Amino acid sequence: MIGAPRAMNANHELKRLRQRAIRQLVSSHAVGSQREVVDALIEQGFAVTQATVSRDITELGLHKAARPDGHVYVIPSDAGNGSRAAGSEERLRRILADNPVRIGRSGLTLVLTGTPGTASVIAQAIDESTFQEQEGTLAGDNTLLVLFADEERLERWLERFQAIAADTPSTSATISR
After folding, report:
1. Which residues pair with 106 in a beta bridge?
2. Per-residue model confidence as pLDDT tens digits over 115-171
3. Nearest-CA neighbor of 98 among 123, 118, 81?
4. 3-state secondary structure at position 137
5. b/e per residue 135-145 (b: at least 16 CB within 10 A)
6. Which CATH number fits domain 84-176: 3.40.50.720, 3.40.50.1820, 3.40.190.10, 3.30.1360.40?
7. Residue 63 confidence (pLDDT) above 90
8. Which of 4, 65, 121, 124 has its CA 20 to 30 Å from the CA of residue 110?
């Protein structure tokens, strides 16, 4: 299994690129069906199935909205029902509601532990949210590290995260040190 970590990293990178392509497609074209997304991705050189695209659409938090040209996929921040902050934090709230997370701490690093396969989804939701205090996120399979430059930023970030997590019964926002 020497090649397994490298293959997992390559798969994660491919998923990241594919989801970026989906976001660009949806923000630049009126896309009304998963089939249209699949076809556009194939044209760009991605080998995808409708099931893969369906999962990506869910993870990206895309939803359909009524537009003059019909119902089309929109990015939550483009839905016309609020600011980017509200959309991004709402996506994070929904993800936390579906994926229980425990929060731990080691120095200036918060350790978020969820169920297998959820760390990258949570990391992406944090990265795309209005949370700016973190230096970055690093996701494994079920564990996510959120890195900070100083104590003040960590505390501000944690207070905001706990406020969002408080709305989700599945997240344990108590800190274990």
Report:
1. 109
2. 998 898 899 889 888 888 899 999 999 999 999 999 999 999 999 898 888 776 555
3. 118
4. strand
5. eebebeebbbb
6. 3.30.1360.40
7. no
8. 4
4-78, which class in CATH?
Answer: mainly alpha
Instruction: Confirm whether pTM is higher than 0.85.
Output: no
Structure tokens at 173: 């926002």
CATH 1.10.10.10 residue ranges for the chain: 4-78
CA distance 88 to 55: 18
Round to whole Å and give the CA distance between 134 and 108.
Answer: 10
Which residue is associated with the tokens 């564990």? Answer: 143
Spatial contact of 103 and 175, defined as CB atoms under 8 Å apart: yes
115: left (phi > 0), else alpha (psi -120 to 50), else beta?
beta
Instruction: Give the Cα separation of 101 and 85 in Å (integer).
Output: 22
Residue with the two structure tokens 């800190």: 175
Both structure tokens of 91: 């996506």
Q: Which strand ranges, in their side-by-side order, compose the sheet holding 102-106? A: 136-139, 143-147, 109-113, 102-106, 172-176
